[in-house]
Queue: 2 jobs
Job 1
Amino acid sequence: MENNPFIEEIISQMTVEEKAAQMLQVPVSVIGMDAAREWAKKGVGSFLNVLGDDMKELAEISSKESRLKIPTIFGIDAVHGHCLNREATIFPSQLTMACTWNRDLVEKIGHVTATEVATEGIQWTFSPILCLARDARWGRTNETFGEDKFLAGELGVSIIKGYQGEDLGDDTAVLACAKHFIAYGEATGARDSYDTEITMRKIRDEFLPPFKKAVDAGCATFMTAYGSIDGTPLTANKKALRGLLRDELGFDGFLVTDWDTVNALINRQRVCDNHGDASRVAAEAGNDMIMSTLEFYDAVIEQVKSGKLEESYLDEAVRHILTIKYRLNLWEKPLKQGVPGSIGCDEHHEVALESARESVVLLKNKNNILPLGKNKDIKKIAVIGPNADDIRAQYGDWTYFTHPVPGIEKEPQRPYVTLLEGVKELAQGEDIEVVYSYGCSVNRREYYKGNFPGIPEFMEQCYADNDHDAPFYEEMPLISEAASAARDADVIVLALGDNYNCAGEYNDRADLNLSGMQEALVRVLETLHVPIITVLISSKPLAIPQVVKKSDAVICAFNGGMYGGKAIAEAIFGKINPCGRLPISFPVMTGQVPVYYNQFPGWHEGRYVDCPKDPLFAFGEGLSYTRYEYSDLKFNKDTLTVTVTVKNAGEVKGTEVVQVYIDDKFSSVMTAVKNLAGFERVELGAGESKTVSIKLEEEAFTVVLPDETRVIEPGDFDILVGHSSKNEDLLKVTVTF
Ligand code: GLC
């Protein structure tokens, strides 16, 4: 990357203090506006978590009052819409949007999000997460695109394109941020920010591909992960940050640390015992911008002035930052313009509804009980459960509920549609009575205290009397109330799952069973012998084999955003034909994780003696109100192209997600029993057939050797094509290279 004379001129004028300030990202939500104003005058590089007039004031000070008038940049976690702004469009979570397997739609979500973030004036979103969620105990599973590197890479590129558009200088373009580099979700025991016992070979094979695609897509920023690789924190990991990301992948944007990770080198990971060493180590490892560690400023200045750290490290970091600011055209427009009036506009809400509809995954439909709309005997529906009418549970993480920006209210902001509201709306048109009962709580303590007005008085007393671990037996009256409500219903719609206190950063789980009295609620409802349609509104897969067994139908909705409830109700009534497919496997029980589909072979018997071999639900799985038949599978070895004929053999139109997996039969290092290598969505009318062509990447046929080189080894490869990762759903053709 040749040097830009405009930037070189600025750097030549900067003092070491100004370089240190430019490398800093300051959390306004922590230090307040008075201190933030002072940092703006010092020429701080960036602020985070500030909106509205406060943000505009800081932008003004930076670009007009600081000595060199270098514009500052604002970052925010707009990770499924600009959700820290109550007025904004709130999309399904990243895991939920991954259920769509729809590149174009995910790009559209990115573009709408960027437009609303830019309309706020902000130039940068800390999104997408490209970590893989291969152990659902991890609290941040909901923020990922699921367990697979190919799906995560494809959808990651889509949303980055949506965020950044064609030119970073455009009014609606914002910087994307591929995070968290690298293998953050793979920590031992799925413990957030903990150590990952992994080799560089495994990192290259499994975790690098999505980040490589992000670099190739021009992602402007990356974020360093909290954790460590075999004892070396990523913040201090020169081999990962400089060797892999910069030198090998050719990343030319800037790298920001995660929150206060420079201090974490001292107070969590204990690889440094003072701020000077930690700041020097972070700069030498290749971190360009330091998030929230304010001590970095004085410490790094002292390191340079005492000769312990070459000032050239600061020059290099500042160069990376200013180059991106230059590409944002910040000196002309210190704040983004966006599209005035577009935040929360109808057109954007339409995209949120479309996303929610396409993310609904039908997992069980015994005797085709669904869709209800065709069954005229249904006169009364009982909507039961803690997540049927709780927008906080439906939204999940990273909204104005979970990460409030100072000055922003936390009360729910309309419009949104919960499952109960969606069912009521559609039942009205069918002259069906709807009754509702709460049933039981999910995680009463911190979650409900003061957060959930209208909770029955006696629940407050329960909260006051019992400690966190009490099994909530005092909720039995709620359960019996629900049973009474459902007793003479024709069908029960049961909304279970988790809420944001059971998920997210700092909230890993050791137990993936349903929390609270939810299993008890199901057992009581089962005694009524009323058909049960269970809807999982949760941040992640949960171990629910008994619930699945007791349910006539099961829908996985995860966190569907502002119209999640509407989309689920439409699927239940048959207004839409579900087309979602799982981006992550469901475990039968907690002890079965990691249960991701692309396991290595070689496990004796391939199962635990006390757990079935297969997952509860498989990667890529999802039913429809129609059925698809595959035939004529062919593979062109020269063009690496798969062709297959898909027929809609049912009576209603639908969208199929054709999936292509590759199994490298024999190789000098072990490879997974199959790996996703391609997918395409195809819309088919009733009875219609289409031939689908999917071109595969050469990389899909490679292995990473112990010397960390990636090669294609001669031999046989099975090309597997079909409806899900399950062998019974796949046609096979074998090719020899
Ligand atoms: C958080 C998260 C990161 C987020 C950042 C700023 O701790 O790890 O994903 O972007 O801090 O909020």
Job 2
Amino acid sequence: MECIFCKIIAGKIPAAKIYEDRNVFAFLDIAPVNPGHILVIPKLHYETIPDTPPELLQKTMLVVRNLGDRVMNKLPCDGFNIICNNKPASGQAVPHVHFHIIPRHQGDGLHLHPPGKKYVEGTLEQVRRKLASTVRV
Ligand code: AMP
Ligand code: ZN
């Protein structure tokens, strides 16, 4: 078992646990962007959001929702970001799907919203068609 998050779930590596149930585990990120930065993970190992079975993803997101409310009320903070990196190209370092809950404070100086690019003339519609035709719920 190489996955560091699987080792945390198995109790082989210590972690600052915030929440645990049969399916989901949450703990403090060891290198917080802001104090109270939480990681929420399904206990079963899947790499990305699309790899994760829908019901397990739902359960994980309900914990994200609950802990988002908790950081707002208990830290407290002014807001929070949910970030989930999928695949190394996106910045995913640990290949076990995880949701970052990053508490934010007004004027904390973080810039998590990069500047937007422009579509080359005519390509927006091409991209829209490609994506719209493949979405299934
Ligand atoms: P990502 O870049 O989205 O894969 O995020 C991985 C996160 O896991 C980083 O924010 C790390 O600080 C965090 N991390 C790595 N190892 C540990 C650990 N042993 N305990 C808590 N957080 C960790
Ligand atoms: Zn894992």
